[in-house]
Amino acid sequence: MSEDRSAPVAVKAGDPIFLSVKAGMTVIVRHLPEVGFTSDDDRWWMADVIYVEGGARNPSVPTLFQVADVDSGEVLWVNADLVTHIVPRL
Fold it and tell me: Which domains are present in the chain?
């Protein structure tokens, strides 16, 4: 699994959760209703973050995550703002 060695972005109270996500974390992704899923169970899923892609204006602010679905193993890209929770490690 890749490791992010960049300096962390300072996150203030009230900032979006995706600003704290780093490669190697497990996250919950929730798709918006207009994506076309038929039930609430299909709208969210758990994924391992493989790579964090920064924005064009500020590369240290994440805009896209390459993730692997923990159920299917499918690797895909998701917009950073679709991440709703960071799953804590045990």
Answer: 17-87 (2.30.30.140)
Q: Are 78 and 27 in contact (CB under 8 A)?
A: no
3 state SS for the chain = CCCCCCCCCCCCCCCCHHHHCCCCCEEEEECCHHHCCCCHHHCEEEEEEEEEEECCCCCCCEEEEEEEECCCCCEEEEEHHHEEEEECCC
- pLDDT, one tens digit per residue, over 14-26 is 888 888 899 999 9
Q: Is the pLDDT of residue 9 over 50?
A: no
User: For the chain, how long is the longest CA-to-CA vector?
Assistant: 40
- Bridge partners of 68, per DSSP, are 48, 75
Is 25 or 38 the better-scoring residue by pLDDT? 25
Of 52, 54, 55, nearest to 27 by C-alpha is 52
Tokens of 51: 């790579």
